[in-house]
Amino acid sequence: MPIDQNVKLGKQVRIFHPDLVNLYGCVIGDETRIGTFVEIQVGARIGSRCKISSHTFICEGVVIEDEVFVGHGVMFINDKFPRATTDDGKLQGADDWTVEPTRICRRASIGSNATILCGVTIGEGAMIGCWCGRDYSCRCAYDCRRSTGSTYRRHAVTASAKTFSMTMIALHHCGIGNTLPPK
Fold first, then answer.
1. What is the pTM of this model?
2. Residue 142's domain is classified under what CATH number?
3. Which runs of consecutive H residues, i.e. helices, occur in 22-69?
4. What is the rounded CA–CA span in Å between residue 7 and residue 170?
5. Per-residue model confidence as pLDDT tens digits over 123-140
6. Distance, CA of 156 to CA of 169 (rounded, Å)
7. Among 2, 28, 88, 176, which one is most buried in terms of CB atoms within 10 A?
8. Rounded mean pLDDT, 39-62
9. What share of the chain is helix, strand, coil (3-state, %, to 5)?
10. CA 146 to CA 163: how far, in whole Å?
11. Which of 15, 94, 96 lies closest to 60, judged by CA?
């Protein structure tokens, strides 16, 4: 697993185990930390002072702004309709699908094992996490704490929500927000 020569590394980037990452054709900002077993593909851009935890996959089309936390085992997807073959059964090539961009805005936090669907923007300061409970289907939690002053509120956000922003108004007026299930 190499760090390819075409990777643009900023100043004081820390890659804890350079022999155990796979970075190629990407841009990594100043003072960013990258954990073990991380793959960052061509065209991905990581901002400054980010933390990318181990076992994370960041694909082409993903832009991560400054000061973002990405937990362990986070997976990004860049294809809305992934298929191995075309309709006539031939293996897909580069012309058979479209890269869908994804943006993670400044100071957002993405919890471990989250899968981030393509074509979304996760807003500034947002906190994203996933859980599966015995009585609940998998869903994502969106933490609105910074947008509401001292009030601490969380909302479940469906995977179909296109943009996660830091405003309670957007969640309530769009009908996206629901309170989390009881513990």
1. 0.74
2. 2.160.10.10
3. none
4. 38
5. 898 888 755 444 444 444
6. 15
7. 28
8. 98
9. 10, 30, 60
10. 17
11. 94
